[in-house]
């Protein structure tokens, strides 16, 4: 559905202070901005039905929040079946062991991570709260709604941590930085969602990276971090999206969210990510053979389950 959200990727014009760490990357938190989670329930609620079959490999836990401030996040995430939806995508993969998705209190730390020892993806209430605080109250000049600004990064973060889980559980060899690889796989999956879902997650997570990028302090330690800089993550996401479908995502170029020099190689970058996914992860999927369209249908159905 090209053109449904105009434009698809650019960041919002102004956003109050963000403070989220991503996957252990809470190296430069700023004081949280004011905000409420009142809109969250509406953002995450879904009328859809039961989840896809994952052979019982995916376990979902919504820990009761310890603070009243997180109650609304708990209810909205649970009612929206947010963990279940991402878990349903990963459940398409035949895993050697059970994988747990858990939303929990993290003693003030806005973070998310995958823990190999417990085979679990943890997302902190504090991280969701920081995303809610960072989301603009009204639709941005770029056309990004508050709903997308909240939902997009939550889905991206869950897919990113899921990618770490897949690397570990499937013994996927990784060349280069694992954090970059996790972003690549997360982007590849989100670009296979239904067009409307993909555009919204893309817009929201792109805006979130841009927000964090604007606030990031780039000193020497930033270059030593295992994560790329937020603006690098922004452009990597933009490039993969544009490379996946130049027509659908032409607005990324039009909005100056991708320099022409980088854009020239994005189709190849996407092909490289697709080749790696087909080679290393697709053989573990429950259904075979898996061409691009069948993969798309499977991901779309799981996410909407
Ligand atoms: Zn990570």
From TrEMBL:
<dbReference type="InterPro" id="IPR025644">
    <property type="entry name" value="DUF4344"/>
</dbReference>
<protein>
    <recommendedName>
        <fullName>DUF1570 domain-containing protein</fullName>
    </recommendedName>
</protein>
<dbReference type="Pfam" id="PF14247">
    <property type="entry name" value="DUF4344"/>
</dbReference>
């Amino acid at each position: 559905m090209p053109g449904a959200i105009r434009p698809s990727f650019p960041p919002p014009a102004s956003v109050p202070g963000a403070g989220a760490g991503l996957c252990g990357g809470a190296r430069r938190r700023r004081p949280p901005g004011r905000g409420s989670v009142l809109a969250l329930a509406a953002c995450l609620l879904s009328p859809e039905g039961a989840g896809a079959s994952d052979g019982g490999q995916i376990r979902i836990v919504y820990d009761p929040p310890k603070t009243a401030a997180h109650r609304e996040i708990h209810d909205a995430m649970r009612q929206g079946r947010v963990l279940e939806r991402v878990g349903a995508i990963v459940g398409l993969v035949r895993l050697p062991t059970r994988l747990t998705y858990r939303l929990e209190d993290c003693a003030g730390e806005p973070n998310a991570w995958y823990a190999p020892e417990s085979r679990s993806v943890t997302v902190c209430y504090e991280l969701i709260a920081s995303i809610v605080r960072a989301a603009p109250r009204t639709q941005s000049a770029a056309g990004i709604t508050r709903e997308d600004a909240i939902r997009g990064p939550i889905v991206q973060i869950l897919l990113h941590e899921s990618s770490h889980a897949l690397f570990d559980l499937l013994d996927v060899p990784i060349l280069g930085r694992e954090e970059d690889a996790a972003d690549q796989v997360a982007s590849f999956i989100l670009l296979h969602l239904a067009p409307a879902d993909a555009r919204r997650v893309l817009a929201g997570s792109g805006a979130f990276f841009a927000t964090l990028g604007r606030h990031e302090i780039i000193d020497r330690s930033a270059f030593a971090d295992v994560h790329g800089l937020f603006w690098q993550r922004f452009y990597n996401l933009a490039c993969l999206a544009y490379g996946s479908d130049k027509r659908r995502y032409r607005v990324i170029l039009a909005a100056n969210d991708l320099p022409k020099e980088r854009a020239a190689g994005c189709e190849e970058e996407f092909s490289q990510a697709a080749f790696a996914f087909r080679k290393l992860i697709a053989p573990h999927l429950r259904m075979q053979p898996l061409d691009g369209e069948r993969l798309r249908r499977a991901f779309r159905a799981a996410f909407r389950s």
